[in-house]
Give the backbone structure.
Amino acid sequence: MSHSSRSSTNQSAFRFRVAVRDFSCLLTGDPAEECVAAHIIPQSRPEYYTEIVGREVTYPFLTEHGITLNHAMHRAYDNGDFALWPRGEDLIVHYFMPKMLKRRAHHGQVIHRSHFRVQDESELPNKQLLMFHYQQCVIKYLRGFAAGFESGGGEAQVGGASGGEGSERLEE
């Protein structure tokens, strides 16, 4: 798991900027003060940033590299239990085999562009990084099913509850 709650000048500024943009946990609507700024992919893997965004990223604390999640959702995100699928300007929550009934309610939840309090599109969560995380989650669960694991690939980390303002459920 990433350690977005640890203290550093860069991390504190990152946490502040992401919280101002998101205002609340993207899934649960919990206030930002009760949440963490989660890196979309681990900051400890700069080579991923370079490969995914096509340029060297020497500063992984850009607002576009993070999302606001409560502590439980942050753990679930880092474990690959769910991912955010970019669809147009919105993000769709995709929960892979939620273990807890209350988390199933988040599957299909739509996080609208209006949830994010920025005008500059470059400060929105980076869609390329979100897609990479999504792909890693899919690989984890496909590999797990192929090996006969009921809940996917184990606890390996991968690089109807109402969400906050600007979210709804996607009906399938």
